[in-house]
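Lecture notes, part 5. Sequence design as translation. It can be helpful to think of inverse folding as translation between two languages: the language of shapes and the language of residues. The source text, in structure tokens, appears below.
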């Protein structure tokens, strides 16, 4: 029975009005408070990975006379990348122009409305979450060229690289309509988008920049292993937002991604410690922290499709193969990727992308997603744009500004010579 104040006549008279409402008023997507709260938290966690996590991790690995210069580069990149993302990066990455790039239709976020929704969260929240990825990715490259590079070219490289390499790759893989997205490539939280682009571009940067003076004969011993461990710990914690947040909701996928992330980090840490103990009879704190990052980088692309068993395997593989990559790149090839950006992030992300189809098998608790040939196609495309884009950008910057500091500046240390400050005032 209808309440007295609602009659069949009143319902009938209201129907034309309801039908006349705009479609968005009838079918407006619902924002989930829980999902929104989690992605807001994840956004803060990913920014925490760069500031202060990555800064301290890298800062502890260099010599005392260069630590402030490393912190300054990571800090400066965080500011520059944020503005680039607002001006054009988000538009290129998530616009709808075509499968290869998003276009410039949303410059300065001119199309962003206060009530715009992306899935079950505000678009502003999604945008901010993706911004933190755009911050940390060029920040990772810093580890390749520490102790010998000018400051201004690094900032200019960040601007051009985000627009010409990172944002297009993000569109290919994560934007609906992107050509690799449509092929079904699986890169849950950035094995290609973040780690492969940064690792490959870092290798190009080193090739065009050259070695540090005295490398490899003069040892460049990390000046603060404690900073390295503290920074790695912050990265470990922040990675829960990095991978768990990539589920874009407070759901089962986020919970499993967080779990497998932690398992892989632990296995990467243990495997690195065991290898060090077998080869040198000593397990080092710097080595353990590096193993943690190797496990995290390797699980990143697969965190959304793995089960606990697959996570243990991928973390073990990450620790072992990234360790071997460090020996190969820096010791055997004498290639001065100073803080092992390619060997850990590049190799780890690529390894995760290629092993994902096998380790996501249902027998290992996974979802069964991933096609190896599609993953390989994506890898080839990302390597190509990372190499070509980085070579062009660096060639232009080298011709106009130069990339390296002078020998006297390098000898004095970049803290005083570039920034007029010191991390330690005795």
């Amino acid at each position: 029975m209808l309440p007295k104040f609602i009659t069949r006549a009143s319902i009938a008279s209201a129907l034309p009005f309801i039908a006349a409402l705009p479609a968005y008023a009838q079918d407006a997507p619902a924002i989930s408070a829980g999902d929104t709260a989690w992605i807001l938290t994840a956004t803060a966690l990913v920014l925490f990975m760069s500031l202060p996590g990555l800064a301290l991790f890298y800062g502890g690995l260099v010599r005392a006379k260069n630590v402030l210069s490393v912190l300054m580069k990571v800090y400066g990149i965080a500011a520059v990348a944020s503005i680039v993302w607002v001006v054009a990066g988000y538009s290129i990455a998530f616009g709808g122009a075509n499968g290869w790039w998003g276009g410039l239709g949303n410059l300065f976020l001119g199309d962003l409305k206060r009530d715009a929704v992306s899935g079950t969260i505000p678009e502003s929240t999604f945008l901010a979450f993706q911004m933190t990825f755009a911050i940390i990715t060029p920040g990772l490259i810093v580890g390749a060229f520490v102790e010998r590079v000018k400051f201004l070219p690094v900032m200019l490289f960040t601007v051009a690289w985000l627009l010409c390499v990172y944002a297009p790759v993000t569109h290919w893989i994560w934007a609906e309509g992107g050509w690799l997205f449509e092929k079904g490539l699986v890169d849950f939280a950035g094995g290609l988008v973040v780690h492969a682009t940064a690792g490959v571009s870092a290798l190009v940067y080193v090739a065009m920049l050259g070695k540090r003076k005295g490398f490899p004969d003069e040892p460049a011993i990390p000046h603060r292993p404690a900073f390295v461990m503290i920074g790695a710990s912050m990265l470990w914690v922040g990675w829960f937002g990095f991978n768990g947040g990539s589920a874009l909701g407070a759901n089962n996928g986020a919970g499993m991604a967080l779990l497998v992330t932690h398992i892989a980090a632990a296995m990467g840490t243990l495997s690195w410690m065991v290898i060090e103990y077998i080869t040198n009879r000593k397990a080092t704190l710097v080595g353990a922290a590096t193993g943690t990052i190797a496990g995290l980088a390797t699980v990143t692309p697969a965190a959304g499709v793995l089960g606990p068993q697959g996570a243990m395997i991928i973390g073990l593989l990450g620790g072992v193969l990234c360790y071997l990559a460090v020996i190969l790149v820096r010791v055997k090839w004498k290639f001065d990727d100073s803080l092992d950006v390619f060997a850990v992030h590049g190799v780890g992300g690529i390894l995760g992308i290629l092993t994902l189809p096998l380790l996501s098998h249902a027998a290992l608790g996974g979802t069964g997603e991933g096609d190896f040939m599609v993953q390989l196609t994506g890898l080839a495309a990302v390597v190509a744009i990372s190499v070509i884009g980085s070579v062009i950008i660096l060639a232009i910057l080298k011709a106009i500004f130069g990339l390296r500091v002078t020998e006297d500046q390098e000898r004095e240390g970049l803290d005083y010579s570039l920034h007029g400050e010191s991390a330690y005032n005795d």
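The translated text above is only one of many valid answers, since several sequences can fold into similar shapes. The mean pLDDT is 93.
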